[in-house]
Structure formats: C-alpha cells, structure tokens
What does this fold into?
Amino acid sequence: MLYRLRITPGRGGELRLRLPDDEQELLEMLCRELGERLDDPADPELRRLFPPAHEDPDADAEYRQMTGNQLVSGRARALSTVQSTLDRKTLSSDEAESWLTVLNDLRLVLGTRLDVSEEMDFDLDPADPRTPELAVYAYLSWLQEQLVEAIAANMGSS
It folds into this structure.
C-alpha cells in the first residue's frame, strides 16, 4: 500500500505540509493533552522529557529549580507553534524545529507509557489493548522521519 507523504521539502527552505483533517485532529488532541501535563514534571510518563541532569539528588533539585520553568516554557511554545500551524500548507524552518521538538516529545511520552524499547516488534495484534496507542506511536514516528528527511533535503539544496 502506498501512503502519501505528509511533509516534504518546499521552496526557499520551507516545508510542505499535507495533513488530512483527522490527522490534524489527532495531533491537536495529543498536543493539548501534553500541554495539560507539562506543569507536572513529576508525572512518571514525562520522565524522558525531564531526565535527571545530575546523579546527586541535591544538585539535580537545584538544577531543576534554576531551569525547570525554562524547559517547560520552551516545550509549551513549541506545542503552541504546532497547534497554530496544523492546518497550514507550509512550515518555515523555525516552525519545523518546533514540530521536530513536539513530535519527539509526543513519542517519548507515549513510548514511556507503552514501555517501548529498541527491540520492540511493531507487528500490531488486534487483541492487544495497547494496539491503538502503538499505532499512534508508529504514526508519530512516520511523521518525524518525514520531517527529518525534508529538513535534510532542504539543507542539501541550499
């Protein structure tokens, strides 16, 4: 089965974006859910977004106190950019960077929830209750791959 690419290189460093309405709605929902959870870095599913910076718990706590708000606000800005560009036909290079951040963050959170590992087999079993979320994880991975390839193609053509 052939799938139409959703993100492709465009002119002048821009990227072309072709998301059907249902995919826009899915991404909007995922972004909204992540945005609602960002204020709780203690959420175990966010541990890959906010990994310890230091082995020493006191040093890590001090680091989080100094930088925690910046990390959260940066992710929130990227989420806002993605949400405001979901229905666009093109993305600027700055918007593409936000998309890259958000797609990675969504995959990390979902991957943590599903305990995804490199050895994981993605042959989806309809009887597995995780199948819908694994399908979303695979979709996000597919989009991220297209985005990386489109960015690389634009860089190679400049």
User: Anything to note?
Assistant: The beta strands are 7-9, 15-17, 90-91. The radius of gyration is 17 Å. Residues 8-156 form one domain.
